[in-house]
Amino acid sequence: MTLLNQAQVEQLKEITTHLRQVRQQKSICIEEIAARTLIRAGVLQALEEERFEELPEPIFVQGFIRRYGDALGLDGNALSHTLISNVVCQDSKNAHNNSGNKSNTYIPLVVTYILLLVAASVGLLYTLNPPQITSESPTPEVNSQQSMVSNK
Fold first, then answer.
1. Which pLDDT band holds residue 9 (cuts at 50, 70, 90)?
2. For the segment 81-96, what is each residue's pLDDT rounded down to a tens digit?
3. Domain that holds residue 47
4. N or C: which end of the chain has fewer CB within 10 A?
5. How far apart, in whole angstroms, are the C-alpha atoms of residue 145 and residue 81?
6. Do 28 and 72 meet the contact criterion of CB atoms below 8 Å apart?
7. Contact 78, 18 (CB under 8 A)
8. Has residue 24 been placed in a domain?
């Protein structure tokens, strides 16, 4: 998972602790939740045991929390939105700060694509309209045939 700030980690810990407690109160095993949510049991265990470094990106974790909460009869959307509101705000700030660096790498790609399109267009035009070979003098075979006719 991407690095989360301390507030986000604490929020995630609170959510996963609540989910684990509700699951244990209802006497539901991890495997049953995994079957209901189609989330691997290992991912659910990593969530409950706060091994967040083993989890995928935060947007996927949001989906896991939503489905996990729904499977327990809780409002999964509300649980997932409390987490993602913190994560999205932080990620959008990071994306905005890094956006200046990305624009410099796209300029050479655009130039490359334009050159590639021009080369493909010229090649297509050449293929569809081959140059016409025009010559003023007839070929040698024609000259020899004409001389044979005139000699008769």
1. confident
2. 887 665 544 545 555 5
3. 6-100
4. C
5. 91
6. yes
7. no
8. yes
Residue 88 lies in a domain: yes
Q: What is the number of helices (H) and of strands (E) in the chain?
A: 6, 0
If one counts the domains in the chain, the total is 1
Sign of the alpha-carbon torsion through 80, 27, 55, 6: positive
Residue 71: which of 124, 109, 34 has the closest Cα?
A: 34
CB 11 within 8 Å of CB 82 = yes
- CB count, 10 Å around CB of 110? 9
Residue 25 placed within a domain:
yes
SS3 at position 56: coil
For residue 18, being part of any structural domain is answered with yes
Per the CB < 8 A criterion, the answer to whether 24 and 46 are in contact is no
Classified as helix, coil or strand, 139 is coil
Q: Is 81 exposed, middle or buried (CB count within 10 Å of its CB: 0-12, 13-18, 19+)? A: middle
Q: Which of 86, 38, 91 is nearest to 63 (CA)?
A: 38
What CATH number is attached to the domain comprising 48? Answer: 1.10.260.40
Radius of gyration, CA atoms only, the chain: 35
The angle subtended at Cα 12 by Cα 7 and Cα 16, nearest 5°, is: 150
